[in-house]
Every structure is written in structure tokens, then in C-alpha cells.
Amino acid sequence: MTRSVHTRSSIARVAAVLLAAPIALSPVLWAPPASAQLIVKDPTNYVQNVLQAARSLEQINNQISSLQNEATMLINQARNLASLPYSSLQQLQQSVQRTQQLLTQAQRIAYDVQNIDQAFRTTYGNASMSASDQQLVAGARERWQNTVGGLQDAMRVQAGVVGNIDTNRTEMSSLIGRSQGATGALQATQAGNQLLALQAQQLADLTAVVAANGRAQALSEAERAAAAEQGREQRRRFLTPGSGYQPGNARMFPNGN
Questions:
Q1: Do residues 24 and 127 share a domain?
Q2: In a domain, 257, yes or no
Q3: Each residue of 186-202: pLDDT tens digit?
Q4: Do 113 and 64 fall into the same domain?
């Protein structure tokens, strides 16, 4: 708008000068030498030509400004559509895979519904009245080994999750830097999405730790409950007539002395 007003003001000044020029030069135009050829100029036509040229120049300037604005808009659109030149997907997937491998390496009673049901029908079920004392001892030992294995698995998962903390810290720092230095909306959005993926990976680690700890605690409680049941069976056998303690003659010295 300022350029247009300035251009129109310049045009008005040029027109005023051109309109005044013929008046000042009129004696020359009307008193030529006798031997010179008479030259007649139309000041009105000349001014109109100048005004038309000025308007054309103004239109060209407006077109140039419009093209500059369009170029700026296209550059901004290209920045907004530029993809983030960084991806943390591989590192996050590797962290999840490490934690998942630790869970799948669970000893004895794994994270399988059928396996758990089978173990609680046999190893952690009611003590068999027909089982021998040796079988009862073997069952108690197996339950103890399951409990120790569950505790070891829980600590291994915890160690794996702690090992992922350093990787997560590095990725978080890199993603935040990329987000702050994003040149467009798409890069900022992609950086934000990867930060959400990092949070999801951390939640997966936390879920794994909770599951491993819960498994270890459940095995310990199950061992305690099975031990109490086995203790009742062993007490019953001890107190049953004919199968408990039978007194006998004891000799202090051999050969009847």
C-alpha cells in the first residue's frame, strides 16, 4: 500500500512537470527560425503515455511482490512437510526385545496358562495320602526350586530394565533436541510421536518388572500354602495309630551288660 501511494505521488509530480513544460517553451515552439521545420508536440498525449507506463510499472511491481509472497509460502509449506531426519524406532524395539527375551527365559513355571494350571494340579495341589515320604520331600524340594527360580527371573528382568535406562536417556535427549530444532510442523509432530513411543517402551519395561515380581511372589505364596498342606498330611501320618512312633526295648550296653 505504501509503495502504491508513493508511485501515484511520483506520477502526479511527473504529470505536473510535463504539463508546465509546454507553457514555458511555447515561445520557442511558436517562433521558429524561418529556415527550420515546425515541430508540434501534443503534451496531453505525452502525459497519458507516461501515466500508462507508470501504471504498467506499478503492475509489474505488484506481480513481483505477489510472486515473492507465493515463493515464501511454498518455502514454508516445504518446511512444514519436511520429514524428521532421525528415528529412534530401532533402538526402542531392541530394548523391548531384550526385556521380552528375559520374560520368555523364565525357569520352570513360565508365563503360560496351561503350564500354570498343570503345576497347581500336581506340584501345588493337595498332598497325596498315598505318596511316600520320599515323594513328599521331592515335591517340597521342587516347589522350593520353583520359588528360587522365580526370584532369580525377577531380578534378571529388573537388571535388564535398569540396563535400558541409559539407552532411554540417550534417546530422550536426542528426541527433545530434534523437537526443539524442528523446522516445520511435521518434524515437530514426528519428534513428539517418537517421544510417546519412548514412554510406551518405558511402560512396557515397568509392566515386565511388575509381572516378574508378581510371579516370584505368587510362587513363594504357593510354596508356603503347599508346605502347610504337606505339613498337615505328615502330622496325620505321625499321629495315625500303627504308623506313628512304636516304642521298643533299648539297650544301654551291648551283650546284656
A1: no
A2: no
A3: 888 889 899 999 999 99
A4: no
Domain that holds residue 93: 89-239
Residue 246 lies in a domain: no
Q: Rounded to an integer, what distance in angstroms lies between the CA atom of residue 124 and that of residue 139?
A: 9
Residue 181 grid cell: 530444532
Sign of CA dihedral 197, 187, 88, 173: negative
The verdict on residue 253 lying in a domain is: no
Q: Where are the alpha helices (DSSP H) in 112-252?
A: 113-122, 133-180, 185-239
Q: How far apart are CA 99 and CA 156, in angstroms?
A: 9
* Same domain flag for 75 and 95: no
* Closest to 91 (Cα-Cα) out of 173, 4, 185, 186: 173
Please give the Cα distance from 109 to 127 (Å, whole number).
19
51 contacts 15 by C-beta, under 8 angstroms: yes
**What does the pLDDT read at residue 23?**
44
Rounded Cα–Cα distance for residues 222 and 196 (Å): 38
Task: Give which of 203, 231, 57 is closest to 139, Cα–Cα.
Answer: 231
pLDDT at 102: 93
Looking at the structure, tell me whether residues 128 and 9 fall in a common domain: no
DSSP-based three-state secondary structure for 124? coil
Per-residue model confidence as pLDDT tens digits over 51-76: 888 888 989 999 999 888 888 888 87
Same domain, 94 and 57: no
Is the pTM of the predicted complex or chain greater than 0.90?
no
- Separation between Cα atoms, residue 103 and residue 216, nearest integer Å: 12
